[in-house]
Amino acid sequence: MKFLEETNPLVSIVIPCYNHALFVQKTIQSVIDQDYENIELIIIDDGSKDNSVDVIKEMIPICEERFVRFEFRHRPNTGLAVTLNECLKWANGKFFSPVASDDILLSHKISTLLSAWNNDKSLGVIFGDAEFVGKNSEKIELDIYSPFPSFNIKTNSFLLYYTAFNFDYKDKEKFGSYESILSGNYLPAMSCIILKSLLVDEGGWNPECVIEDWQMWLELSKKTQFFLVDRMVSEYRLHGNNSADYMREKLILNTYSLLQKQEKYALSNNFKQLYYKKLAGCINGLRSVSFSLFVKELIFNLKSLTFLKYYFLMTAAKFLENLLNGK
Fold first, then answer.
1. Residue 46's beta-bridge partner residues?
2. Contact between 126 and 113 (Cβ < 8 Å)
3. H/E/C letters for each residue in the chain?
4. CA 266 distance to own-chain centroid
5. pLDDT tens for residues 214-259?
6. Residue 1 has what pLDDT?
7. Which residues lie across from 16 on neighbouring strands?
């Protein structure tokens, strides 16, 4: 029995659902279809205003038959971070795997990522890649734009899309490092498994943080190296109602706030250049949310010569890009 627990640990897959009645059954079915058996599934509907609860209830009999343990609850809306923390307290698995209620797991996701852990038990955060799909699960390629149109490329890879022209995500030293995560939130949450103990030690997700996943990745990366299995294990659905599409202003403000909280750690761990480069971009982003806040924060940070350098370089690069594109 102990050997089985060490090689085939219980995995807690959790699905926080909010207004995804059109997609959540396919998400649940993709968990049912996993080729790994030792799974518990926890679903919490976070106050959906559509008929998500009804369509989830239709799946209860098959879920109770398929999983080692199945739990479902629904209650008023409290937000994603609170819902994830509720799932974390409820979970019994050695590994924790969050999946948005509009995404899809490929059938080999859990077994593939656990295979990496069985080869190296020191791993605590293991990722695969994700591919983009549309509303009807059709494969999608996204354009990666560069300042020079001839260098534009198309990709179906989540990791490549969010790291192109930044760093090589296949570099084992850089992938999941604090440095790479500070530069941008490029990790596909639906494509990972995490040791539950790491999340518990971290105290769960911050309910005040809108980009709770980026905050968690930053904190975990200070304590452990992430591991990449270079294989597609999930599908990330784009349907025009993703959180990034309707929370733009909150995301901009929260990105700046989160970055400010990283200042002490970044500067004391030799990430000064990267920190101020990222800060320059964040402050410039404030312009579209609140011009007065943009001016205030810009003036405050001009005392740093490193910030001033990166803000000037960013502004000059944007001017050159517009010039080349005839804007």
1. 75
2. yes
3. CHHHHHHCCCEEEEEEECCCCCCHHHHHHHHHCCCCCCEEEEEEEECCCCCHHHHHHCCHHHHHHHCCEEEEEEECCCCHHHHHHHHHHHCCCCEEEECCCCCEECCCHHHHHHHHHHHCCCCCEEEEEEEEECCCCCECCEEECCCCHHHCEEECEHHHHHHCCCCCCCCCCCCCCHHHHHHCCCCCHHHEEEEHHHHHHHCCCCCCCCCHHHHHHHHHHCCCCCEEEEEEEEEEECCCCCHHHHCHHHHHHHHHHHHHHCHHHHHHCCCHHHHHHHHHHHHHHHCCCCHHHHHHHHHHHCCCHHHHHHHHHHHHHHHHHHHHCCC
4. 21
5. 999 999 999 998 999 999 999 999 986 655 555 788 888 999 999 9
6. 46
7. 44
Instruction: Determine how β-strand 227-237 pairs with β-strand 125-133.
Output: parallel
Q: How confident is the model at residue 313 (pLDDT cuts 50, 70, 90)?
A: confident
For the segment 259-302, what is each residue's pLDDT rounded down to a tens digit?
Answer: 999 999 999 999 999 999 999 999 999 988 889 998 999 999 98
Q: Which residues sit opposite 13 in a β-bridge?
A: 41, 97
pTM of full prediction above 0.70: yes
Q: What is the pLDDT of residue 280?
A: 93
State how far the Cα of 18 lies from the Cα of 198, in Å rounded to an integer: 26
Q: What is the dihedral of CA 179, 245, 260, 275, to 10 degrees?
A: 30
**What are 308's two structure tokens?**
């001033």
Compute the average pLDDT of residues 17-45.
Answer: 97
List, in order, residues 6 or more apart from 196 with CB less than 8 Å away.
12, 88, 91, 93, 94, 95, 96
CA angle 318–143–105, rounded 5-degree value: 130
Cβ-in-10-Å burial (0-12, 13-18, 19+) of 174 comes to middle
For 96, left (φ over 0), alpha (ψ -120 to 50), or beta? beta
